[in-house]
Design goal:
Layout: H1 2-8, H2 17-23, H3 27-35, E1 49-58, E2 61-71, E3 76-86, H4 91-108, E4 117-123, E5 126-132, E6 136-137, H5 138-144, H6 152-171, E7 184-186, E8 192-194, H7 199-203, H8 230-233, H9 238-254, H10 264-273, H11 286-295, H12 306-318, H13 343-346, E9 356-359, E10 376-381, E11 388-393, E12 400-403, E13 407-409, E14 419-422, E15 432-438, E16 443-448, E17 455-458, E18 462-464, E19 473-476, E20 498-503, E21 509-512, E22 525-528, E23 533-536, H14 543-552, H15 558-606, H16 615-630
Antiparallel strand pairs: 1-2, 2-3, 3-5, 4-5, 6-7, 7-8, 9-10, 9-13, 10-11, 11-12, 14-15, 14-18, 15-16, 16-17, 19-20, 19-23, 20-21, 21-22
Helix pairs in contact: 6-9, 6-12, 9-11, 11-12, 15-16
Bound molecules: adenosine-5'-triphosphate.
Length: 631
């Protein structure tokens, strides 16, 4: 049977190549790696391995069927094993990966629901992960079915197996990052186990050989938005696996791989830039449908954890009519609470009596004002109404009855979601980030630009930082000469001011520049490090000129519009002034004519008067003349 599956899995088998692969390597090189690596338990002597057939070729390397030969004088055994041979890496990277593998190996011991790991070896400078050989995968099973998809009860059963396996790995701090039906292996009892565990995690932080692979830490069709550039718009976290899990379930239910037929760049544009989600079949049991909707939340903090997924699948499995309602394919919109948080987001922190709390601000707002509870303490749980707690607020006699979704826990002055700054800067990453969690003992996790995973530390390492939200205007601080990310300049050469359009969970700001006119492919969105920015508001702009310049940041058309209005006004004014001048010239002309007429009359009247007569006298004469003329 094993041979049958192997044959079916042989897309590009190279039967003769393995001997070459195994023995061509420089034994001294191997000995160096072996000798300098701490390989107490997982290390397998490469000379005991014999590669037989290549089963498949994946993004991270090839999988081979091999024989592992073991003997200790008394006995001699040959085991059929699967060998994942990773791509060639530099010697110091090999060492780093072997150390990481050892940690993974130790943590995986005794975990059910994940592929059995025998150990690790190095052949030809390539790391080989040696695992139990399984008869096939969920992907293989689907490929052999006529419709290419599984029944709902089967999906739920495998889903429960897998969620349990992933949950166990998560409990040991291991991220899978490559969940997909081909990596769900099937054991003798038709239970799904996770294959290929943790390989992207082994590669985290290690430069990949091909530039094409550098931004991929998984299989593109199953990758979560934050997985593409985890140090820039990440970090990756446990909920990153929830996205991959959701993609796999959708594929198992429909037989269609998410983003099928699209190139890597097209998938990147759909998932990361346009924030699109895989299509979810409609008519699924409500717990499964809700969980899938949650799995495809763009911000991973809003997604369910594996324990939520397991619970949902179990409850759908127990429901009698699980398959009755599943009909056709369509898309749905996720449900969020009144403040814009999903129930998965809110369920990550369970409030307890004695917790200090404050009102939760709406998810897309910076404003803390008008809070019902600026500061309070939970003094009891309302047993009559589910989800309500009693909060004692300073200055109010009776405790307030408030729903937990409207409150957030404050520990050592910090609450999840706060903007924080590291007291001691670390050059490797930004000093400003977003707090993801704070335990009651003060241990924290923070998302920082420059880190692929969450930073762990203590609340005493942090201080509050200025918070940013979508819609605010920002520009680079004057002392920033070389920003972390590219930042556009105005025509005059000064840094442009932009508007925040999105905030990644690590605090990376996606900034648009409505004040700059862009052409063709020119991108209008830029990433920015909050540590390098300052806010721009009308109040902070000194003087009328700066205020007007800020007005220009709102839209590129403000300047031409102002120029047009200016020109129009100038023309109108010109015309008006022209008319006025014309009128006054005509008037003056008229007056001049009148005057010369009068003058003539005066001259006539004054003809007998000498020219040296003083003006009052002359005027008197003039008046007399006018009156004489008028008479
Ligand atoms: N332990 C194993 N036993 C039997 N078959 C395995 C085992 N591990 C992997 N396979 C099979 O080998 C084939 C190739 O696996 P591989 O994981 O290399 O491919 P991939 O999942 O497409 O790529 P990658 O994981 O590198 O992104 C798959 O069909 C997989 O089911």
């Amino acid at each position: 049977m094993a041979e049958k599956v192997i044959a079916a899995n042989l897309p590009t088998a190279e039967p003769a190549a393995f001997e070459y692969e195994l023995f061509e390597g420089d034994p001294d090189h191997l000995r160096t790696v072996v000798a300098t690596t701490n390989h107490s338990t997982p290390w397998i002597d490469p000379t005991t391995m014999k590669l037989r057939h290549r089963i498949g070729r994946g993004l991270f390397g090839d999988v081979w069927l091999a024989t592992h030969h073991q003997s200790n004088g008394d006995y001699e055994e040959h085991h059929e094993v699967a060998v994942k041979m990773l791509h060639t890496a530099k010697e110091d990277h090999v060492r780093a990966m072997l150390d990481k593998f050892e940690d993974l190996f130790t943590k995986c011991q005794g975990i059910e629901g994940v592929c059995w790991l025998h150990g690790v070896s190095v052949l030809n400078g390539k790391i080989c992960i040696i695992m139990k050989f399984y008869e096939g995968s969920v992907g293989d099973k689907m490929a052999h079915l006529k419709a290419g998809k599984l029944s709902l009860p089967e999906v739920l059963r495998y889903g429960v197996d897998l969620a349990q396996g992933v949950m166990e790995l998560h409990s040991k701090g291991i991220l899978v990052l490559n969940l997909k039906p081909c990596n769900f292996l099937l054991d003798e009892k038709d239970r799904a186990v996770l294959g290929d565990i943790g390989i992207p995690s082994l590669l985290l932080g290690i430069p990949l050989p091909s530039s094409d692979l550098t931004r991929r830490l998984g299989t593109p069709n199953y990758m979560a938005p934050e997985q593409w550039e985890p140090d820039e718009t990440g970090p990756i976290s446990f909920e990153t696996d929830s996205w991959g899990f959701g993609c796999s379930i959708v594929e198992m239910l429909t037989g269609l791989q998410p983003w099928f037929g699209m190139s890597v760049d097209e998938i990147y544009n759909s998932v990361v830039r346009r924030q699109e989600k895989p299509t979810i079949p409609i008519g699924l049991p409500p717990p499964v449908e809700n969980i899938l909707l949650g799995c495809f939340e763009y911000d991973f903090r809003s997604r369910p954890l594996m324990t939520d997924i397991l619970q949902a699948f179990k409850s759908a499995q127990n429901a009698d009519d699980s398959e009755a309602g599943w009909r056709e394919i369509g898309s749905r919109v996720g449900k969020t609470g009144s403040l814009g948080y999903t129930k998965w987001f809110l369920s990550k922190d369970q409030l307890q009596v004695g917790d200090a709390v404050r009102s939760r601000k709406p998810s897309k707002s910076c404003k803390l004002e008008n809070m019902d509870v600026p500061e309070g303490v939970i003094v009891g749980l309302d047993t009559d109404r589910d989800g309500f707690v009693l909060v004692r607020v300073h200055g109010i006699h009776d405790p307030l009855r408030i729903h937990v979704s409207k409150l957030e826990r404050v520990t050592h002055g910090l609450a999840a979601g706060d903007w924080v700054r590291l007291k001691e800067e670390d050059k490797k990453h930004s000093s400003v980030g977003i707090l993801h969690s704070i335990d009651r003992d003060g241990s924290i996790t923070v998302g920082f630009i420059g880190m692929e995973t969450l930073w762990k530390g203590s609340s005493s390492d942090l201080q509050m930082a200025e918070s940013y939200c979508v819609g605010q205007f920002v520009r680079l601080k004057a002392n920033v000469l070389t920003p972390r990310f590219k930042w556009p300049r105005k025509r005059e050469g000064t840094w442009a001011t932009g508007r925040i359009s999105w905030i990644s969970p690590n605090g990376c700001l996606i900034v648009k520049f409505p004040g700059l006119l862009t052409f063709g492919d020119e991108s209008s969105s830029f990433m920015a490090d909050p540590a390098e920015l300052e806010m721009v508001t009308f109040d902070t702009c000194p003087g009328i000129v700066k205020k007007y310049q800020h007005l220009e940041d709102f839209h590129w058309s403000v300047r031409p519009l102002v120029i047009a209005v200016g020109l129009f006004t100038a023309m109108k004014l010109g015309a008006f002034v022209g008319k006025k001048i014309g009128r006054s010239t005509a008037k003056k002309q008229h007056e001049k004519e009148n005057h010369s007429e009068r003058q003539q009359q005066v001259d006539v009247g004054a003809a007998s008067n000498p020219a040296w007569l003083p003006p009052p006298v002359a005027n008197m004469l003039f008046r007399e003349g006018v009156s004489a003329g008028a008479q």
